[in-house]
Amino acid sequence: MRLMREVISGLANRIQVRGWFFACLGAVAGLPACVVGLAAVRPGFPAGIRVPVFLVVFVATAWAMGLPHGARRRGVRLANGLLGTNLPRPLTPPRSWGDRLRAATWLPVHTVVGGAVTAVTGLCLGMAVGLPWVWLAGGGEVALLWFTAPVPRGLPGAWTLLVGAGCLLVAGGCTWAGTAVLRRLAPVLLGPGAAERAAAAEARMRALAQRNRLAQELHDSIGHTLTASTIQAALAQELLDRDPQAARRALSTIEETSRAAMDDLDHVVGILREAPAPIRPQPTLAELDVLTERIQAMGAALTVEAEGDLGQVPATVSREAYRLLQESLTNTLKHGETDDIRLRVAARGDRLLLELTNSLPAAASVAAATRPGHGLDGLGERVRLLGGELSAGPTGDGRWRVAADLPLGPHA
Predict the structure, then answer these.
(1) Does residue 288 contact residue 304 with C-beta atoms inside 8 Å?
(2) Is 50 exceeded by the pLDDT of residue 56?
(3) Cα(363)–Cα(375) distance, rounded to whole angstroms?
(4) In the chain, what are the domains?
(5) What's the pTM?
(6) How far apart are the first and last CA of the chain?
(7) Chain CA centroid to CA 94, Å
(8) What gap in Å lies between CA 319 and CA 288, rounded to an integer?
(9) What's the pLDDT tens digit per position in 292-301?
């Protein structure tokens, strides 16, 4: 009874109607293979091998038609639209021949199941309409496959109504069963293989790593801007009465750094939202002068020593090195003394050396100075991604030192 209720409800179910249409598409897709199979059966073949020859040629042709990657893409699109599956769209051909052969099997299966559903439902619907029609027309004989059935006039011929209703149930049951089989087999044959799932997982990991990197860059940029703006605002407030010109320069610096931070924010948020983002070159070591001038404008005594041709540093390393220096200087402004900051940047052969030192606050103990924080964690993660090494800690003479050694070769 439960199965009958499911079949009856499936007759009016929109998904089942789409499933029947999907089965009919499979029957239509198999027509070229059917034509080739019929052409392969020569008139001189013995009667006993004609059907086997037709079936072998038919299946082989349908299977070959399913080998192209486009056939798999269309199969996935139709299955998702008409069967209600949720298969991932295959963007590239399968990497292994096993996955290709498995996907190619879908077309013959779709053709055979769809052809059976189309034939049975077509016959049942024809009988469900034809038998009552003959009875209402005054009776007569109806040919049913290999036999004929008399349809008398009047009440004795009312059996055609029962048979018609039964035919409708058979048609609904066949559609339900065929749709269920196709829906069950679609993920098995059209779904991603082990290699494709591994590639998809790797792509998701890369996307997640990229998003984490962007979040770290946004944290560094906004943190630097807030620190610089706070210091400049305090400086402007202090100089407002004594030196209005210096106060205006401090406010101008706040405006410039805030605008740069807004550009970074628009850029990163646009990428995370998968929307077009403003195209703006990311800062590199070529803009080191701009960064150091900004720090010096905050009242910090910063000495810079550059060695080598920084313009020849690979773009990836140059961008990350700029971010490293920006974050390190921001941490220095937050936690260290700004009366004697020394920055050294040296490009030697296949290595890039970054070193930043500053005086520790007088009240800071060695234990407090060596306590790790989120800033150092972020710096260490950047350096490790580039294949380099980071060291940070007190030097023993009352100063704090952060040094990074970055390769300019394969990791770049």
Answers:
(1) yes
(2) yes
(3) 21
(4) 2-192 (no CATH), 204-280 (1.20.5), 283-412 (3.30.565.10)
(5) 0.49
(6) 69
(7) 17
(8) 11
(9) 888 888 778 8
